[in-house]
Every structure is written in structure tokens, then in C-alpha cells.
Amino acid sequence: MGQCVTKCKNPSSSLGSKSGDKDPGSKSHHKKGGGGGGGGGGSKEEPGPVSGKASSDLLANGTKTMEVTAETPVIPALAADAHKDELMANGEEFSLLRIEELFCCYKDEQDDAILEEGMERFCDDLCVDPAEFRVLVLAWKFQAATMCKFTRKEFVEGCKAIKADSLEGICARFPCMLLEAQVEEKFKDLYRFTFQFGLDSEEGQRSLHRDIAIALWRLVFTQDTPAILECWLDFLTENPSGVKGISRDTWNMFLNFTQVIGPDLSNYSEDEAWPSLFDTFVEWEMERRKKQEERRCTEPPSTETPETEEGGGGS
After folding, report:
1. What is the reported pTM?
2. What is the dihedral of CA 141, 146, 149, 151, to 10 degrees?
3. Counting CB atoms within 10 angstroms of each CB, which of 41, 83, 174, 226 has the fewest?
């Protein structure tokens, strides 16, 4: 594993590093020099070809023509730079070649993708747990379609998006990614991504299995846990309504529910367009709270008096 990581850390030259030897401007210049028919082809003879041009060329400002000719050799160099695979990000260079090399360290031998085993090694080298929030955020930035899998395109485009081409670079981006996930609109995007991420696309799933949904709800709300979340997850765990899967609509609406409905559920109304599962949850939760309150009221007061015991111990 260490050898693989070391290989990925080796800097490499950029792709598409064309030499840019073509110099059409320069060749054209020498050709014009020959056409002047006079002395040698040295730069001292440049005024000769100009004076030999047609009068229309002179009217077009001969000085400008000479300036363009002198600057033309720079253009191929700029074009070569444009083809270089070195990109600038915060003053640090990163390249597609190094991203591809990093991907190849973890890709499957048969499939052109990083699969479960490769993902475990990748997370281990990043010093993160595959089941932690940072990995979910990374998958979101990579726009991964399936859990425990990064295709080559997802990995490459994701690394380009976060401007990193090494393990160290990815680790250095985690703090910024976590801050980004706290922005309301960004979190909303992450939240909706998480539902799709949890589906088994190969089986054509359209709803999340209840247990997977519970795990993903705990995960996606890692940084900012709604007050009602644990009650909601208790309800799903006890499953009084017999729900087997969570639809996309229910998943999306729960985020709105946490933002609009207070923890005491007093402002919840069945007349609003909430999923029916929410009606069942609120009814179940209110009944549970009522029973808990009745239990506290009927329980006999404790006969233990710590103050007295402490006083007796002192005497």
C-alpha cells in the first residue's frame, strides 16, 4: 500500500506538452525578405521588403505589419501553454496526469472503477472511516452515482472540481468542503444527493430501504442535527406503520419538516401537504409523550433522600 501511495506522489510532466516548433510567422517573414530581391536575408534588410510591398500594404500602416510579424512567433508558444495539463489552483499546480495516476492506484483490475476494496484502501490512505460524513461529502463533490464506487470519470472530474491531485491535496480540501456543506443551499443539494447515492441503481431501486434510510439520515445530519431527528428515527425503528421503504418525496419533505415544524410538534397540521407517514409519526410521537408524562405522574416519589443520607454519614 505504501509503495502505491509513493508512486502516486511522484510529480510528473504535463500531458500535451507540445514543443510548439511551428513558426509560421517567422517563415512568412523570411519569404517576404527573399521577395524583396535585394541583399541578404538578415534582420537589417527588413525595411527592404516593406518598401517593395504594394502601395495598398503601405496605406494599411506598414509599421503595424512589422509589429504583427515580430509578435507572431509568440502565438505558438501560447497555444502550447493552453494544451498543457497544468492547472493553477490557489497558487499550486495540479495535473490530470497525477489525478489519473492516483485513480490507477485504487482501481479494480477488471472494472475501470474504484470498487469496494479499492475504496477501503483509498479511505485508509486518507485516514478517514468509509462510513463517516467526510466520505459522504467527498462522494457528493465527486457526484458519485453509487455507494462504494468511483468511476474514472467521477474520480477525475471530482478531483478537478476540488482542485486536488494527491492524497494530501484531498485531505487539505476537507475543511473547506465541510464548511461548504453548512451553507443552506449547498446542504440542500447534499441532502438530495444522499437519497440518490443510497439507491442501488443496478437493481433499479426507487426508494431507500428503511434501515439504509435511517443510517443515511444520521449521517447527512452529522454537522447540524435537528431536534426532532431522534424521535423520527425511533418511530421508523419501531415501525408502527409497517413502512418498508422511504420514497424520494418523503426524504425530501423531511428536510422541510425539520425546518418548519418545532420540536414540540405544536404547529404541525394534517391539513397541509405533508406525506401521510408524517401524520402517523406526529400521532405516534404525541401519544408516546403523553404516556411518558403519565408515567412520571403516577410513579411514587423516591423514598431516598440524599441530603439525609449524607447528613447521617457525617454524624
Report:
1. 0.67
2. -70
3. 83
Residue 77 and residue 6 in contact, taking contact as beta carbons nearer than 8 Å? no
* 48-106 residue pLDDT tens: 444 444 444 444 444 444 444 444 444 344 333 433 444 444 445 668 999 999 999 99
Alpha-carbon span 214 to 286, nearest angstrom: 21
* Tally of domains within the chain: 2
Burial of 134 from C-beta contacts in 10 A (0-12 / 13-18 / 19+): buried
How far apart (Å, rounded) are the C-alpha atoms in residues 75 and 305? 91
Provide the greatest CA pair distance for the chain.
Answer: 125
Q: Which amino acid is at 126?
A: L
Instruction: Identify the CA nearest to 228 among candidates 250, 252, 261.
Output: 261
* 211, HSE (Cβ side, Cα atoms, 13 Å): 0
DSSP 196: H
Distance CA 156, CA 28 (A): 42
At 213, which CATH number?
1.10.238.200
Residues 152 and 215 both lie in one domain:
no
Query: 3-class SS at 245?
Result: strand
- Residue 265's H or E segment, with its range, is none
